[in-house]
Amino acid sequence: MRNTHVDEVDGIDRPVLALGTDYPTGHVLEAHRHRRVQFLYGATGVMRVETADGSWTVPPHRAVLIPAGTEHRVTMTGVSTRSLYAEPEAVPWFPRRCQVVDVSPLLRALLLAAVDMPPRYDPHGRDGALVALLLHEIRGLVPLPLDLPLPGHAGLRALCEGFAAAPGVHEPPARWAERLHVSERTLHRMFLAETGMGFARWRQRACVLHALPLLARGEPVARVASDLGYASPAAFATMFSRVLGAPPRDFRSASG
């Protein structure tokens, strides 16, 4: 099924529904939730998924797993999606929190084939076997570090959201502590308790996630590195590779 809203077919008696949708650049799916779990794959472009407890940046050829009932907002940048919507009882192993995962060539081919299946596919025939293989492949995927946890503390969350929109690698924690009227030591304790990450690691992750859509649309690595405050493209590339396990050029080429 292509360019069909899931609500139109949600009642179909099949454990998994596959939908393909094309979105214009800058399209935003405002906060919503699904009765089924969702495996949201971006065949092109970059997605940003936001929930109450964090955000997930999804580069091309990756996917995000969204649990049933999770309210989420999605910003699309030149995205064509292939989504699977599964009954929760069909995937008891599904994560309870969103996760971004890599998508292998095999899984990609299965997803592309799935959206061409009829909505009331034969669960005991070829299409049913394709769905079973899809779920088998998804179950073994390992999460990628593409999430940015956000704190519940209102003041700290506001600072985090502002930083994520325009990050800089040299942002001093002392400035945050001053704005929150706490000591630096208290700030670091708050940060770890609220996000599960130290300030420096979170700051670094925010820089990487901000860079991803810029790289995907072809921005030069040198310009991205400079905008984030890195002394050189090499310093940025080293940090980027340490976080994601691949150099920035891999994420630039993904958009071509």
Q: How is this structure best described in words?
A:
The chain has helices at 105-114, 126-139, 154-165, 173-180, 184-195, 199-216, 221-227, 233-244, 248-253; strands at residues 16-22, 28-32, 37-51, 54-58, 62-66, 72-86, 99-102, 143-144, 147-149. With 256 residues, it is α+β, with helices and mostly antiparallel strands. Strands 1, 2, 3, 4, 5, 6, 7, 8 and 9 form a nine-stranded antiparallel beta sheet that branches. The longest helix has 18 residues, at 199-216. It is globular. It starts with 15 loop residues before the first strand and ends with a helix. Keywords: DNA-binding, Transcription, Transcription regulation. This is Helix-turn-helix transcriptional regulator.
Percent range for helical residues? 25-40%
* Mean pLDDT reading: 92
Low-confidence stretches: none
What portion of residues belong to β-strands? 15-25%
Question: How much is the radius of gyration in Å?
Answer: 19 Å
Keywords: DNA-binding, Transcription, Transcription regulation
Protein name: Helix-turn-helix transcriptional regulator
Domain HTH araC/xylS-type: 177-254
Pfam families: AraC_binding, HTH_18
